[in-house]
Amino acid sequence: MTAIRPLQNPGTEPEQADGGRDPGGSPTRAARAKPTGRFSLRQLPYLAVLLLASVVFIYPFVWAISASLKPRTEVFDNSLLPHAWRFANYSDVWSYAPVLRWIGNSVTVALAAAVTVTLSSAMVAFGFAYFRFPLRNLLFGLVLATMMLPGAATMIPVYLIWHRLGLTGTQVPLWGQNLFGSAFYIFLLRQFFLGLPREFFEAARVDGCSFFGLFWRIALPLSRPALIVVFVFEIQASWTDLLRPLIYLQDPSLFTLPRGLKSVIDTFGNGGEQHWEIIMAASLIATAPLILLFAFAQRHIMDGIASQGRKG
Asked: Is the predicted pLDDT of residue 75 greater than 90, yes or no?
């Protein structure tokens, strides 16, 4: 009489009783994927290089944190641990300058710039990825060629355009040109759209979906990792932009955070009495939101960057 074997769940593989090997003697997939946990001397040079690079990149940030917690006379003593801790430097920043207003202006400008450039670049990229029309590759090459132009070459013409529109002295020039997309983001999103199965769009067209419906209902939901990458990159670019606020903003109530920090440096970094501890504290306050943003969006950023190279 034969023994009755218990049923197994469908889709699962039976466990190997011979130490994770299949009947042919080769290691199973689970055994090959399991890390050994052994340290090899060949890894030592790589670990040393990684450690050195980490120290080189982290040291300036640690020094800035230390300088922001020191009295004025000890800022440049090159000691990472302050002899006298002065946490009041951070409270002094808020009393010496309208930092909260500058942060609000930076948030408004950064969100407007990120939303507009993400949507506009996605629409242009979808057009290049989905539609087949004459001279498509030539036009796409011209779009990429705009990245070769330095910003200084177009600075004066762009300023004259905004001046003719009467928008100089406002925050609109800081994000308005993003309505027309960015060549770099168009390239990234086009590569992602080319990796989407074309059968999805053809089936939707058979069901009567419009071209805009293909973009809004199919392309955008399937491209969330790439869109998050573009959104976060533009947030970082707009948050740290100093040149355009210097050109277009004169009213201190409209200053973004980098433009406000420039005024803080002009006030406390020049003259006879220099307060570099205030400048360091203000710089760290400006850096903290970006650190938090990348910490929360790290997984989406890595997924989006890893999938950018897919091409159909």
From this structure: no
Pick from 31, 67, 130, 79: nearest CA to 269: 67
What is the Cα–Cα distance from 191 to 193, expressed in whole angstroms?
Answer: 6
Average pLDDT value for residue range 229-256: 92
Residue 268 resides in a domain: no
Give the chain's largest Cα–Cα span.
101
Note the helical H segments in the chain.
29-33, 44-68, 88-96, 99-130, 136-145, 151-164, 183-194, 198-206, 211-213, 220-222, 224-239, 243-248, 257-268, 276-296, 298-306
Report the C-alpha gap between 117 and 233 in whole angstroms.
11
Examine the pLDDT at 123 and tell me if it is beyond 90.
yes
Q: Are 74 and 132 within one domain?
A: no
Distance between CA 253 and CA 256 in Å, rounded? 9
pLDDT at 272 over 90: no
Nearest partner of 147 among 111, 174, 181, judged by Cα: 181
Paired tokens of 83: 């002899």
Residue 27, helix vs strand vs coil: strand
Q: Express each pLDDT in 189-198 by its tens digit.
A: 998 899 888 8
Mean pLDDT, rounded, for 192-207: 90
42-76: string of b/e by CB count within 10 Å (b at 16+)? Answer: eeeeeeeeeeeeeeeeeeeeeeeebbbbbeeebbe
Q: How far is CA 262 from CA 69, 167, 266, 270, in A?
A: 20, 22, 6, 11
> In which residue are the tokens 């199965």 written?
197
Per-residue pLDDT of 155-171, as tens digits, reads 999 999 999 999 999 99
Structure tokens at 28: 């199973």
Region for 169 from its dihedrals, namely left if φ exceeds 0, alpha if ψ lies in -120 to 50, beta otherwise:
left
Q: Which residue has the tokens 């950018």?
A: 308
3-state secondary structure of 13: coil
Please name the residues in contact with 217: beta carbons below 8 A apart, sequence gap of 6 or more: 204, 209
CATH number at residue 197: 1.10.3720.10
Residue 229 sits in the same domain as residue 80:
no
